[in-house]
Amino acid sequence: MCGIVGYLGEKDTKGILLAGLKELEYRGYDSAGIAVLQDHDFQSYKAIGKLVNLEEKTKEFVTDSFAAGIGHTRWATHGKPTELNAHPHLGESSYVVHNGIIENYAELKKELVAEGVTFLSQTDTEVIVHQFEKNLKSAASAFEAFTKTVSQLEGAYAILLVTKSEDKTIFFAKQGSPMLVGINAENEKYFASSDTPLIGQCTDVNYFEDGDYGYVTKDEIAIFDATGTKKEPIFQKLSTNKLSAQKDGYRFFMEKEIYEQSTVISDTLLGRLTETEVVFDELDTNLFENINEIKLCACGTSYHSALTASYMFERHSHIKTSVEVASELRYRDPILTPDTLFVVISQSGETADTLETLKMAKKAGLKTLVICNVDNSSMVRLADASILTRAGVEKGVASTKAFATQVTIFWMLSLYLAQKRETLAADEITKQIQLLREVPASVQVSDTLHERVKRLSKRYLHGHGFFFIGRDVFFPLALEGALKLKEISYLHAEGYPSGEMKHGPIALADPELFTIALLPQHLLYEKSKSNVEELSARDATVCAISPLVFDKADDYIPTQNHADYMLEFFEMMVVVQLLSLEISVRLGNDVDMPRNLAKSVTVE
User: What structural domains does the chain harbor?
Assistant: First the structure.
């Protein structure tokens, strides 16, 4: 996910910006750049690939007097990873860096182009600097122009902007994307999108709240809230541990990524929902023409998201859907017909088995689509179309937020196709869109929930195995819950459809068999409950995850009362992730780097 740094002071501005960007490498990026305003003159450098390329470009550049500098590492969302699309973006006399997504960039860009503005990049970010310079022509000051610009933006952003008319000032704004400012005894000002770049440079930091905007100079930090009221910064002592800072105070990256799911799902939704429609600007309108079947292909966690998608495509879009394990499909002689849309799913876009099936589909002449988290990856380059999940870098080997964003994309895509095929009434699509907007709230982790799961976990450290069971979309979620537990705890776990237990697996039922039962209120509750009762009658130990109390459960993890089973799905997803995490922690395992596993599987 993109990273921001900024510096205002008299030291080696170039060196400070490059060092700060290096501390953000763990977030992942595909290009980087800096802009320095010194003595009323700008110097800007950009490079694709790793920071060493930017360092090479700037080796002759010297900063030896007071300067305002901004820097950025970019994880592509709008536009390919190219130098033109890399930040900072230039206006006539200003530069900007930005994390997040400007939801109304298309309409702003259309107005600016009509007024004669030339755009150099494909990004949403570039509209910020051009809109600022448009406002600057009629404003009494640069700050007035910046304030007006921020009020015209919709979406999520952390913004730093510098302009020649006030060359000893950095303007900032924060909405939905993290950013902080740091100070030290030498009265320097530092900006970053996380603590890490500021460690060793600053002693105290102020974390901006949503709606904050303002400016810094050598002698002032001016912060205004969303109502335009000036407020005082609230400084806190800065951590001195870089690894801890990367984890934002969490014990493990996996734990951090579970907690991040609310934010990244919000990013996934941004710009893709109106009040009545799902919009995918990245898809050609003819992608689904003459398509009578969808074939989904993936491995591991992505396979589970594909299974979930199959229920939604058939239910919402009324289109035949099949799901394939990539490592099996590539060695079969599958029947691939031209009326099939072939969809591959991968966090990295490099998964070897899945990539090979994509090549098979291309060779057979099928239309292809990839659901992926990494722009410019092998699959994104090869497929006819791509949808980026915007999950940001996932460092924990056991995938969490990648799964959450994949399922979110598939929910939206099933509605998008339903619109085209007219298989859902307009009021039902509007209802589903409102439910989608509620997903970020449904995955927020409360202290009460996490503490309950943590305390329960000590009862599940032995036994001869786990069954995770569920019906409908909760069956793929059961598979995913079992996979998470296997990956990081090394305990045997299996996912099963609830109704299948009596067809063999129930033979294993005894007190040492732990059953994690997913019991949503709004989808086949009574059917699922009777299946769990069959296990309980045979003395299996049952942990029920449900908004409804189940009196035959040995343990019970209550979930919120939601309006729809899909919101229950996302909350239960968080519960099984946390349960796996806490069991693994109690067993003393390395949660982020489980044995025998790699993050991106690029071999057979």
Answer: 3-246 (3.60.20.10), 254-442 (3.40.50.10490), 445-586 (3.40.50.10490)
